[in-house]
Amino acid sequence: xxxxxxxxxxxxxATHAACMAELGLDVVGIDTDEKKIAALSVGELPFYxxxxxxxLQKHIKGGxxxxxxxFNEIADCDVHFICVGTPQMKDGLAADLSYVKxxxxxxxxxxxxxxxxxxxxxxxxxTAQALAATLPANLELAWNPEFxxxxxxxxxxxxxxRLVIGVTSDRAEELLKEVYAQNLKENTPWVRADLPxxxxxxxxxxSFLATKISFxxxxxxxxxxxxxxxxxxxxAIGYDPRIGNRFLxxxxxxxxxxxxKDIRAFMARAEELGASPALEFLRExxxxxxxxxxRVIDLxxxxxxxxxxxxxxxxxxxxxxxxxxxxxxxxxxxxALDIAAQIHDAGAxxxxxxxxxxxxxxxxxxxxxxAETIEDCVRGADLILHLxxxxxxxxxxxxxxxxxxxxxxxxxxxxALDRDKWRQAGWQFHALGRS
Length: 435
Ligand code: UGA
Fold this sequence. Notes:
The protein is α/β, with parallel strands linked by helices. Helix content is 44%, strand content 13%. It is built from 18 helices and 14 strands. The strands form three sheets. A six-stranded parallel beta sheet has the order 3-2-1-4-5-6, with helices on both faces. The protein has a six-stranded parallel beta sheet with strand order 11-10-9-12-13-14. A two-stranded parallel ribbon has the order 7-8. Helix 9 (195-226) packs across helix 10 and helix 9 (195-226) packs parallel to helix 12. The termini are far apart. Uridine-5'-diphosphate-glucuronic acid (UGA) binds at residues 122, 146-150, 206, 209, 213, 247-249, 251, 253-256, 258-259, 262, 324-325.
């Protein structure tokens, strides 16, 4: 039976560790953050991810999974997965590789001869080859990008739609086939690539997804100008299987810890490679995305004051949603919170609700007001902004909210609410990209 380690226990690492135990492997998760390891060791997760706490607890109890801060405890592992973060640099577009570099160095110090170090972090192309050159000759490196979505992390890891491995030898591929034996039995597509291609697959996939979202948001802008309806347009073009209907939800755009920083780091890397023109379009994808947030703020102004130059001082605005997407408490680069903060800065009395992300949102924006219940959030509001499409918001009863608000105005920033239901209940309903 293979024994593996997982270095870095954030969204990616904690999920990978628990899921590899579920696939039958012996797993040691390691992190330098003692508090995080203490929590994980008793099956507590420092973030919200459906199904993951149960899986952690199951395998900690069953003895297949443990967590430590001591690198000596991973010395006897056959395969090491490096899952640390690569955030955007504070002073530019590029990715900060310092965690990846120190993780590889720390593992290399203790790893037994013949073991395989596998990068899963999203890195600029060329990183794997550069890291391989720093390893002792008796260790081997591979790259195995991760495509999990927050909110579906367990499902995506246990049943991925493909496995991509960047390797430089058949032996490395065989070891990874042993790790993923269960997935291979279930016929998960297996793509063997060289190191740079494996790194590129990840950023290419995220760039494509970002492009799809910005494309539909660009169409939303045109629909607004021309009096069209982007939700109908998306449905109609999505029936063409070459286009497909997923990731065509127009609204306030993409955020989170991946898509925004990945397209920026990709542009920065292309520039270093002398290939900037190839990725120039991603700059436009980024601006369309950020413009969607500004369009909401302009709409709020016109909704409330009839002009988009007026200040918002005398208005109370209820913001439904703080997380960057539903079923997550992640507020990194959250379009919803960014909009809430900008409207607050413009003078409005803003109150934010989220089913799971209030604590992380408070940490990021301590000046904003937060409400524990939807009712407290909307009480006395001149306008409700629906910015993260949690199920509980989609199922709201517009009639029951009516007596609570000051004005029955709602703006759907995610095109996820039932417009007819709200209008029939007497609300002024607006949505991005719908005339
Ligand atoms: C994304 C990718 O989808 C994963 O495949 C990838 O593994 C991950 O990044 C990563 O690099 O680690 P994630 O950040 O969890 O996953 O979120 P997505 O589901 O991709 O959503 C990203 C953003 O796009 C959210 O803010 C969401 O609200 C927005 N979005 C998504 C739209 O605005 N419209 C859509 O139609 C779809």
